[in-house]
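the two lines:
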Amino acid sequence: MDNDLIPLLQLCDSNFPSGAFSHSFGLETYIQEQVIVDKESFKTAISTFVDKQLVFSDGLACRLSYEILESSRGMNELLEIDRLLYVSSLAKETREGNRRIGERMAKLCMELYSSTTLGEYLHFIKNKQGYGHSALVFAFVAHHLQIDKEKILSAYLFASVSSLIQNAVRGVPLGQTDGQKLLVEMQVKIHEAKNRIMKLTKDDLGAVSPGLEIAQMRHERLPVRLFMS
Amino acid sequence: MSYTGVLDLFASKKNEKTIISSCYYEGALKIARPIYLEEDSPSIYLIHVGGGYVNGDSYFTQIQVDDNAHLLVTTQSSTKVYKTPTEPVRQQTKIKLGFGSILEYIPDPLIAYEDARFIQETEVEIERDSCFFYSDIITPGWAKDGSFFKYEWIRSKLKIYRDGQLVLFDHLFLEPDPQMNGIMQMEGYTHIGTFILIHEQVNKKFLDMLYSHLIETFPNVHLGLSALPDQGGILRLLANHSGIIEAIIAEAQTYSRRVLLNKESILWRKY
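prediction for all of em together
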């Protein structure tokens, strides 16, 4: 029996109540400014999102956290990554959104796949010595369940992409079939992104895309919003 | 290691006036004599003695502002990075602000030419009641064929610490690729500007006022403004030439000086 499969499916399920459902991470700004108007324009956007945001921040952070857990280097280094993700997110809504999602996932996963290290992380979050980020939670759960590093990385990238596509289906809007087609088309991209993340170093962590960041900042001032970021 | 240029400045307060109490420089970096555009606070112009940064150059600058001192730092002209065939250019800056001190660090734009690789690492230590204004403008130099984005890459890292804790990490890694001009990256623009302001009184209300002021003064500019986790804000903008970015940052600086520091605008005459 493949012991990895079912927990991974559960973590990546778009019904998994992480709160990601409420966040567009700047994409809504592009929708309102009519830069993203259909499947093709959304595909260009989400491709860059994967290549930049997910590779250099979320994905790399997940890999580095997993490696820290593997080498038992301890909570301090994990908290350093946690803080770096928080302070490198320069748009307030996105920073707070990631924090909320991270905290919620940490609590939920503590109920589902509890481990000492995740418990410690949650404790630091509760004491405001940590912030919370989904990248770390995925690493904790995967390491605890002995899921292979590259597998969890692909799963994490898939979960992020899938959730953004679901939000685009509601926000752009796109057809449900188009959304699913896009998810298929993104498979190669996710695979490439995972391979690139494996080659990066800690020095690369947190590199941002200037345009995306501005879109995330401008989201705060949109008059009508479907999403919290 | 030996640097291409080193600069070490210490500003402190003496009888209601900030003075440069010590200054050391060697190699390609130096400063002009401090100019008192305001009675109590000097402006320092950083000078690069050569024509620009070339292959393998390394620079180290340290600026310390003592308790309650107020220093303004700019450059005499833009920083030019030329091609770096074997080694990137590295510029390290360390800044330390004492209690109640103010530093306005507003250098001219960085211009990266064809085949340039540039690493900029800036570390700033602030206190809870210190005030820090910082700007950074990154522009691509013209290539022979008239196109932009011929530099290889630029990596810029700004880290701000308060009480030993990292409170801001701004990491820009610009590597021209087919996505560079597009959505989320440069959005069809060529120049990036950043203005960071940290002060006890920077809150949502202040940032909303600053935003309205900037948008009224410069409609149709592609800018974003957001609050930092704790008593600060960041303005990021994209445009197609340095002039507009410099004007917006100068406006943001002037507005912040007026509201937060109760001071008038500063006019840096350059040649």
